[in-house]
Write a sequence for this structure.
């Protein structure tokens, strides 16, 4: 923790301890790496490299995310990313959990507030209640805390007319070598027909056994919400057939092979895109005199084609530590003011990125606009 911030806390996790999710994710931490270093004890930050998707490859001063023409395989642009850590979600969570108090299997059901304005209480589905000074809802894209603060209608995710077919798969050693030949971490493509493709490494546990590695790839595209409702009901074989046919008919290498080599039992996830802008007037929540607030994906779910979600969550964490620490250390600055300042900065900063990420998602699916998209113009850097 930051040396000056002596903040007592407890983390309540909805999932049971050691829960195994059907899907694990990976994401890039880049401009927020120095912020994360400020937040983590030095001995834990020293282990950050171990959480990477390929921990055997040395950390590079910078990486290049190449963008290909999805139909021809010819490079059309690139984004340069300094001090990138491409990490597995499960590994990073395990590292961050070391040495901190976590209570597992604690699903929140309601929130209550004392009349004197001093404390907030979280009531859990198991019948227990815990009271404290501030409750921070950092419970993900479909946040229950956001729901409790705003009601289901206002807290509901904004459904977008884009969807993706996701795959995490193993291949033969030779196939893995080929799929990583364009870049060992990731490769993207924009297709003249309006598709966006991604191919990357998800897990490389043993550098000598590439057939046990997991590759991560998806194809996203514009799709009306009415059509999404139909596609959500498809069986897995329908999704698998769709993504394999799409790659075979439309895509150049290595995306064609990444999907074409999938086995008959390979699981494919259909995933409509969503967002939620915390800066909109209708999305302003009552923080009950600074007793409850939101952070991370609970506060600002955004599309992922510009790779900003985790970095903005880390920025939220640093801001919370600084503002909460400031009121604990001050005789004049109160909790209400500290949380107000945090929320004002977070809503403005993250709201802008939610909108920019959506603009980027739109543009990378329109061939004539790809080269003017935010990721091509700004890379993965924040714009403010």
């Amino acid at each position: 923790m930051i040396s000056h911030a002596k903040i007592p806390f407890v983390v309540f996790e909805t999932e049971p301890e050691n829960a195994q999710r059907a899907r694990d994710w990976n994401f890039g931490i880049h401009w927020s790496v120095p912020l994360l270093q400020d937040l983590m004890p030095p001995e834990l930050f020293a282990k950050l490299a171990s959480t990477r998707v390929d921990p055997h490859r040395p950390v590079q001063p910078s990486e290049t995310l190449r963008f290909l023409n999805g139909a021809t395989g010819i490079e059309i642009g690139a984004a340069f990313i300094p001090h990138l850590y491409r990490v597995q979600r499960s590994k990073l969570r395990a590292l961050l959990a070391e040495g901190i108090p976590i209570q597992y299997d604690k699903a929140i059901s309601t929130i209550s507030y004392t009349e004197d304005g001093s404390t907030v209480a979280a009531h859990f589905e198991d019948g227990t209640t815990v009271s404290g000074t501030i409750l921070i809802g950092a419970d993900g894209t479909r946040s229950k805390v956001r729901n409790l603060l705003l009601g289901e209608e206002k807290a509901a995710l904004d459904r977008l007319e884009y969807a993706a077919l996701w795959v995490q798969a193993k291949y033969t050693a030779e196939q893995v070598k080929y799929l990583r030949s364009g870049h060992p971490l990731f490769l993207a493509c924009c297709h003249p027909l309006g598709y966006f493709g991604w191919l990357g490494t998800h897990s490389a546990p043993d550098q000598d056994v590439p057939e046990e590695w997991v590759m991560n790839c998806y194809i996203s595209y514009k799709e009306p919400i009415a059509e999404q409702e139909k596609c959500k009901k498809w069986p897995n074989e329908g999704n698998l057939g769709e993504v394999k046919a799409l790659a075979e008919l439309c895509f150049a290498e290595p995306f064609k092979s990444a999907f074409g080599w999938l086995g008959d039992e390979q699981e494919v996830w259909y995933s409509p895109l969503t967002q939620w802008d915390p800066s909109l007037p209708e999305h302003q929540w009552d923080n009950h005199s600074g007793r409850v607030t939101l952070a991370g994906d609970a506060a600002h779910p955004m599309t992922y084609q510009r790779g900003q979600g985790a970095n903005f969550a880390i920025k939220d964490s640093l801001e919370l530590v600084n503002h909460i620490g400031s009121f604990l250390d001050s005789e004049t600055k109160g909790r209400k003011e500290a949380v107000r300042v945090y929320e004002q900065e977070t809503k403005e900063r993250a709201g802008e990125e939610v909108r920019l990420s959506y603009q980027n998602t739109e543009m990378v699916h329109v061939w004539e606009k790809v080269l003017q998209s935010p990721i091509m113009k700004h890379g993965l850097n924040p714009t403010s």
